[in-house]
Amino acid sequence: MKVLVLGAGGREHAMAWKLLQSPKVKTLVMCPENTAALEQLRRQYKKDVAGWSDSVKGAENLLALAKKTKSQKIDLVVVGPDNVLADGAVDIFEKEGLAIFGPTQAAAKLESSKIFSKQVMKSAKVPTADSYEVHSVADAEKLLKDLNWARKQWVLKADGLALGKGVEICETRSQALAALGRLQQYSHSFVIEERLFGKELSWLAFCDGDTCSLLPPARDYKTLTADPLSPNTGGMGAVCPVPLEDPQFGDKIRELVFIPTLREMKKRGVPYKGILYAGLMVDGEDIWVLEFNSRFGDPEAQVLLPLIHDDLLEWCLASVEGRLAQKPRVVPMFDECAVYVVAAASGYPGVVRNGDAIQGLDKWMKVHSGFFAGVRKDETQWRTSGGRILGALGFGNTIAEARAKAFERLEQVQFDGMQVRKDVGAEWL
Questions:
Q1: Which of 201, 235, 318, 347 suits a disulfide with 323, CB 3.0-4.6 Å?
Q2: By percentage, how much of the chain surpasses pLDDT 70?
């Protein structure tokens, strides 16, 4: 089979790496091309690995890409980024008669619109925080001034996509009003919800419109530092699986969160296929859904995909073709732990400095040690090119062992201004 992966980040590198393990995949294309990832994949797999430079932004570019994909006789397209799904990639490629893994534009609104997502949760009776929706900056400002800040704290969420940076946790009214000014760049509509406390989990599932199969719980590290009020990022690291006291907890999540959501989406005429990601807050027996994402998380994909025991291609096809009822309710996984630690560029998540020389990547090219997101090469030197540059991956019998291996691998790489969260996985030491 010939497979096309849309997206060029660390998540898409992980997707391509896992898909190439399938004996059925003979050719894999990444678009846009990630040159560092492609070089590593070509060294590791003796298969046809290629990159296309076409843009995946906007419906017009996606239509041109779909026609090219059809002419190249690609058998399956797998989508990574949220904005590509929000731009209607699945609808466009399906109209060209192509098989594509991911939700339609209407179904992807579970991520691209926080307001729509909340409405679905409430209709489906999925547990979530009390919230308000507002549709102008003026209304948001008035509500923030009127809310009771003496007894509760509040979270401000921009309605649209924001690369993981559209949420602000606010302890005071003044913080919230300042956050409103920053979040206007993403949307003028907002969800303002009560702040919940507990432990956050990322729980993902393959979905086919009717049913789902769960992956194990992961945890990502969203803020730049261990301070929960430090800037939000796309994710500075991840751990999988997160140990749980209740072995039946996954069944509870499936019946309280995933199945009701799938039923509600089908009832609305927008059946959900692809990966559905539930960002959860857990406090003892209580759970709440903080958000839905419509694709593999980044960096959750980098710890989940390597642990999948089965052929990823088969799971993608079962989702596309509506065959998940024939699959296990839980995706079979290796009995290991994985930890992923991101190295980000100087200035991230604000104004990023690019072009810094990266030392130590030659060893990573020979022995798989992690995934590349913002790495480019000039005539002789690998350099930084983006916000999150790369991430080190470690495995072990325990999270502590996997964590030690990830940081050991990360120490092999250096570039000026490198930012790393030192506490990834530290709660299990």
A1: 318
A2: 100
pLDDT in tens, 259-307: 999 999 999 999 999 999 999 999 998 999 999 999 999 999 999 999 9
- Beta strands 2-6 and 76-79: pairing type? parallel
Instruction: In whole angstroms, give the CA distance from residue 87 to residue 105.
Output: 7
Strand partners, 184: none
Of 358, 309, 340, residue with least CA distance to 405: 340
Tokens describing residue 379: 């005539």
**Residue whose structure tokens are 């979530």:** 128
Contacts of 296 (CB under 8 A, 6+ apart): 11, 15, 80, 204, 275, 277, 304, 305
> In degrees rounded to 5, what are phi and psi of residue 335?
-85, 65
Burial of 429 (0-12, 13-18, 19+ CB in 10 A): exposed
Residue-wise burial string across 193-232, b where 16 or more C-beta atoms lie within 10 A, e elsewhere? beebeeeebbbbbbbbbebbbbbbbbbbbbbbeeeeeeeb
pLDDT tens for each residue of 179-209: 999 999 999 999 999 999 999 999 999 999 9
The CA distance from 298 to 204, in Å, is 12
